[in-house]
Design brief:
There is one protein chain. The longest helix has 23 residues, at 124-146. The chain has helices spanning 12-26, 45-50, 124-146, 168-171, 179-190, 232-236; strands at 3-8, 30-34, 54-58, 66-70, 74-78, 100-105, 108-114, 150-155, 193-195, 209-210, 222-223, 226-231, 238-243, 259-263. Helix 3 packs parallel to helix 5. The strands form three sheets. A six-stranded mixed beta sheet has the order 3-4-2-1-14-13. A six-stranded mixed beta sheet has the order 5-6-7-8-12-9. The protein is an alpha+beta fold and 268 residues long. The structure holds one DNA strand of 18 nucleotides.
Length: 268
DNA sequence: ATGGCTTGAGTGTCAAGA
């Protein structure tokens, strides 16, 4: 396995042609998708099989939903985060929320995550985000014990540092960039993970999400909230990590861009 | 200024995302 990627597609129904095109062009070994927004019976597994990918998926109607596509089959699949919905989820939300998919692919433990948005600091959804992150931290610590080759990638909905935000003053204290969220991100890293994007020199103002409104992409008003965190063993063999802005320029784009990590020699 | 776009649900218009 030499290339893994993550992409919040904001509806797999709408984005399917773009994802198929991207797979054919880039040929990653693994692609983790978030916000598929379909139930499992509506997931387009056949279309992915047609271009040479296995798919595992955990979806629900309208919201959330994660899927992991891979050249090699996925084993030991866990489709729910233990303890995530123990605390009261925000009123009116469907439970359990489908936001995590763990799978072992060619001996690498791949944790695909769609961390809650949190809406606004102090809201019910913000409390749910922190509670969900607490459950993730616990699950991750356990998974790391049994899987030295582990990667956690997806839409974290957290911009970890000032350089990850187009206007840190504007975003100070706000959801996605609040101190508590950033502290949790640091705690996840301290479990023994590396944010591989920051292992390498990167262009100034590198972001993975831009608001659809106000020409956010053209003005590069964005945030880096999609991340690839690797265990030390995998990070040592990571040779590059980049954000592919090309799909964000398409007609009807997702508001997120794919993030890609490359390894040498093969990590499997 | 609490908007701005986009998607899904469902067919009028709202919730949710970030």
């Amino acid at each position: 396995m030499k290339m893994i990627a993550t992409w919040n597609v904001n509806s797999i129904r709408v984005r399917l042609p773009q994802v198929l095109e991207w797979l054919e062009k880039e040929s990653p070994d693994v692609l983790c998708l978030q916000e598929t927004k379909v139930t499992d019976e509506d997931f387009p597994a056949e279309a992915f099989r047609g271009v040479g990918y296995h798919a595992v998926f955990a979806g629900q109607k309208t919201y959330n939903g994660v899927a992991t596509l891979s050249r090699a089959p996925a084993d030991a699949v866990v489709a729910l985060l233990p303890g995530a919905d123990d605390a009261q989820p925000p009123s009116g939300t469907q439970t359990p929320q489908k936001r995590l998919l763990a799978a072992t692919i060619e001996g690498v433990r791949v944790l695909n995550v769609y961390i809650p948005n949190g809406e606004e600091v102090g809201s019910d959804k913000y409390a749910y985000k922190l509670s969900w992150l607490g459950a993730l931290e616990k699950f991750l610590a356990e998974e790391l014990r049994s899987h030295p080759k582990l990667v956690v990638l997806g839409d974290y909905n957290i911009a970890p540092e000032e350089v990850d935000v187009h206007d840190p003053k504007l975003w100070e204290g706000r959801v996605l960039f609040s101190d508590r969220e950033r502290a949790v991100f640091r705690r996840l890293v301290q479990l023994g993970l590396v944010d591989v994007f920051r292992k390498f020199e990167q262009p100034e103002k590198s972001f993975s999400w831009w608001d659809y409104r106000m020409n956010g992409f053209k003005r590069n008003f964005g945030l880096r909230i999609d991340h690839i965190l690797c265990s030390a063993v995998l990070a040592a063999d990571c040779r590059a990590c980049s954000i592919d802005k090309e799909p964000r320029r398409h007609e009807r784009p997702s508001d997120h861009a794919p993030v890609v990590a490359r390894f040498e020699p093969s990590i499997s």
